[in-house]
Amino acid sequence: MLNPFAKADTVDSISGPPSQFDYGWDRTFQFLALAGAWMILILVVFILWEIGGQALPAMRDYGLSFITSTTWDANKSQFGILPQIWGTLYSSILALLIGGFFGIAVAIFLTQDFLQPSLAAVFRTIVELLAAIPSVVYGLWGIYVVIPALRPLANWLHETLGWIPLFGTSLSGPGMMPAAIVLAIMILPTITAISQDALRLVPYKIKEAAYGMGTTHWEAILKVIVPTASAGIFGALVLGFGRALGETMALAMLIGNSNQISLSLFSPANTLASLLASSFPEAGQTEIKALMYAAMVLLAITLLVNLMGTAIMTYTSKKFEGKK
Amino acid sequence: MNEPSTAVDFATRIELPKLEKSFFVGRALSSSLLTIGVWVAAILASVPLFSVLYMLIVRGGARLNLELFTELPPAGFELGGGIGNAIVGTLVMVGIATLISVPVGILAGVYLADLGPDTKVASAARFLAKTLTGLPSILAGVFIYAAVVLAMGGYSAIAGGIALAVTMLPTVVLTAEEAMKMVPQKMKDAAYGMGCTRTQVIWKIVLPTGLPGILTGVMLAVAGAAGNSAPLLFTALFSNYWLHSLREPTASLSILIYNFSGMPFDNQIELAWAASLVLVLIVLVFSILSRIIGRPKV
Predict the structure, then answer these.
(1) Does the predicted interface ipTM exceed a cut of 0.85?
(2) Which residue in B has a C-alpha nearest to residue A295's C-alpha?
(3) pLDDT for position A179
(4) CATH number, residue A188
(5) Which residues contact B144 (CB under 8 A, 6 or more apart)?
(6) In a mutagenesis test of the B interface, which of A249, A316, A318 is the best target, namely the one with the most B β-carbons within 10 Å?
(7) How close does chain B come to A260, measured CA to CA in Å?
């Protein structure tokens, strides 16, 4: 029989203090993890440093006139990106109008008890799958589906309402509107996903209070729930705008790569990202420098927009913390 | 005035409040209209997905045969041909990107979630990682062009893989952090109570418990990288031949689609659709894997 009062040190034990190796590995691993976190900081600095460094010669050569002049001609070494900046902003704003409207509508649809949970899950999957389709595939689809589908309507609008600058040209092939539509589809999942999170953060009590005061379903949504979630929805729109600004391949395939400033929805245009995509692979030394400057401008614009979006998101998630 | 003789008379004389709800009057009407509107919006928003899938199956499916996977892309007026080298190139470069971004991303995630969640480094890294998710992927390409292509003296699969790794890293870091934050403090405390070092707790408790969430993030990042083309445009470029070395220009599915979509030859356009189908299938496989792994266990 085992003696219950036997001394502990007489029993074989598998436990013991950490070995020298355990201590060493502990130190090493903690250091590696810290290094991993630092890698992100270093990466951002390195990105700014590399692109900024490459852009510096062109910045010195062309100065601010680079941003305000309108010709891009590698043969004459004349470089200006005003049409591209215009095209980037114009296409992104159009996409934001379309994608924002549909994105927020879908987010409300999915979160405000319009559907049984199972059906809502199906719609949510559809929206998530929209995000999984690669940009080039959207570009190809835009060329062979959106442009032909849009052309009759666009040309009819041009013929009957051609005096409005928006419809000032006909749609011959690639152009602003097909690009903006495809861009809207591409940013819709981002806007929907973030808006859904914002709408879900609204405390249930607030909704019940609104119903208790006799509001209809939509009065509660439009006057109480959406305003409460407005900061988060605004953040979603800003981040969606940021995505639209930097989107490259689909736009390079659909916008027509024509360096002009036009209000018309149907005329070809260009964006900073598609300028980089279409000119970079074949550019000579001087043009590469100018393209680096253009990349720097794009980086500055998108960083600004994304920093704003991230800051808004951080602020709103803090606002509702612990109020559920 | 006569006394009412029946109950029916009462009902006709006294105004009873109308309690049933009408969907077509006043405020209820606008509510109904908005409900219809939001249904229409949701259905319209799902049309593109079905249109894309329909086109992929009809136009891409037509060329889906063995030749597609074993042959090289055709030049100019040539007929036939396949996209074999582009499939290999995409898989190789996504593999390189995964090898780079996953270890670094998980290490950073460990630090953000467990080792120093409230330190200044962690909050800065978290904020910058969120900002990096919004970095236009073409700028990752420009950055790697300046940092790697110029240094190595040419376009290569390695440069393409590193560029994709830059786009994957933020997703891996942020999802790994989220997954490891979900590990209950009690489990960690139990391990510490038994005398584990922090590293032992991370390896034996935090990483295994958070593994499904971490893998979900990795799969999502892989799916995104496989479909991403902008970073490859001027890092890996394109090649019409099989991959022989990691230090030479490399074909990828997405660049093949981009190049072929603008060509005036029917054969190339058919191949672009077939390549799109293959690419979407690859992306979907990883997306679905991420969902299966990440599904909450009962």
Answers:
(1) yes
(2) B139
(3) 94
(4) 1.10.3720.10
(5) B159, B162, B163, B166, B231, B235
(6) A249
(7) 21
The CATH code for residues B67-294 is 1.10.3720.10
Structure token pair of residue B191: 């391990």
- Contact present, B137 and A277 (Cβ < 8 Å): no
pLDDT of residue B1: 45
Q: Is a pLDDT exceeding 60 seen at residue B2? A: no
Q: What is the pLDDT of residues A120-131, one digit of tens each?
A: 888 888 898 898
Q: Which residues of A touch B125 (CB under 8 A)?
A: 37-38, 40-41
Average pLDDT, chain B: 88
Q: Is residue A268 part of a domain?
A: yes
CB contact under 8 A, B131 and A22: no
Q: Which domain holds residue A211?
A: 85-283+306-319
Q: Is the pLDDT of residue B13 over 80?
A: no
| Alpha-carbon span A182 to A32, nearest angstrom | 42
Helix (H) or strand (E) holding A73: strand A72-73
Determine, yes or no, domain membership for A129.
yes
Q: How confident is the model at residue B185 (pLDDT cuts 50, 70, 90)?
A: very high
CB contact under 8 A, A280 and B52: no
Q: Tell if the CB–CB gap between B233 and A295 is shorter than 8 Å.
A: no
Beta-carbon separation of B135 and A130 below 8 A: no
DSSP H or E segment with residue A72: strand A72-73
Mind telling me how many Å the CA of B9 is from chain A's nearest CA? 33
Alpha helices in chain B (DSSP H): 7-13, 26-55, 61, 66-70, 84-110, 120-133, 137-144, 150-152, 157-181, 185-193, 198-201, 207-227, 253-261, 266-294
User: Has residue A13 been placed in a domain?
Assistant: no
Structural domain includes residue A55: no
Two tokens at A141? Answer: 């689809």
